[in-house]
Each structure stands twice: as structure tokens, then as C-alpha cells.
């Protein structure tokens, strides 16, 4: 069973939606849930497409910042996330599932859940090897 809740936050052209998937023993995981990682909660951040290219770019940047801050907040709570965009986020099936209008575009789909493993730690390169101080 899927529950969809949507609400609007500032700025006026960013629209987060919360999808909560509940599994029943008699029902298999929905196709969209399997594609989106099997997480129990998905937050979709969409924005209203603007005619002015500069305003449209600002809307995308604002929505993207919201996605990043959402992911940082989830990580702080020891929750796992991933930012899904591209073809999955812009498919007609997803647009239909979320009942998006033609004037809305998805900035990101963020599955949230308790990870079943810790991500592998990568050895970090010293910042001095990557940067050079030129001065003022």
C-alpha cells in the first residue's frame, strides 16, 4: 500500500512529497519501490518550471540545495540515502505515479532508510596534494 502526502515549502516553487511504502505479506514490493532501493520512505523534491531561464536555473538550484540538506540531515541521524535523478526521475511512469503537472520537474528522489551495511571508507588524499596556494 502506498501513501502519498505532499506539501509546499518556501520558496514557493519547490514542492517536496513524501511516499511511505508499507509491505503486506500478501503483496510483493511494488516495482517503483524495488527500483528506488527498497527503502520504506522516499522524499521527492520537485520544482515549478519557470519561463525565464535564469529563474528556472535558480529554482533547480534551490530544489537541489533542499535535497542536499535533506541528505545531510538524514546522515546526521544515521539514516541511509541516495540521490536519484536522471531518467528514473524524469520518466513518464514516475510523473504519472506522483501526479505531477507538466509545469513541475523533479530535482531528486531520495530513498531514506536504515542501511543494512556501512559504506566502505575510502582513503582520502591529503588536501596539499590537490591544492596550491597562490596568494592574494
Secondary structure category: alpha+beta
The main β sheet shows up as: 5 strands, antiparallel
Average pLDDT, rounded to a whole number, is 77
CATH T-level topology: NADH Oxidase
How many structural domains?
A: 1
Instruction: Tell me the overall shape.
Output: flat
Q: What is the name of the CATH class?
A: Alpha Beta
CATH H-level superfamily title: NADH Oxidase
Structural features, described:
By secondary structure, the chain is of the alpha+beta class. It has one domain: NADH Oxidase (3-Layer(aba) Sandwich), CATH 3.40.109.10. The chain is built from 4 helices and 5 strands; from the N terminus they run ββαβαβααβ. Strands 1-2-3-5-4 form a 5-stranded antiparallel β-sheet, with helices on one face. A hairpin with a 7-residue loop joins β1 (2-6) and β2. The protein starts with a strand and ends in a 23-residue tail after the last strand.
How is the topology of this model organized?
Blueprint (H helix, E strand, L loop, with lengths): L1 E5 L7 E8 L9 H5 L5 E8 L4 H24 L3 E2 L4 H4 L2 H6 L6 E10 L23
Antiparallel strand pairs: 1-2, 2-3, 3-5, 4-5
Short description:
It holds the Pfam family Nitroreductase. The chain has 136 residues and is of the alpha+beta class.
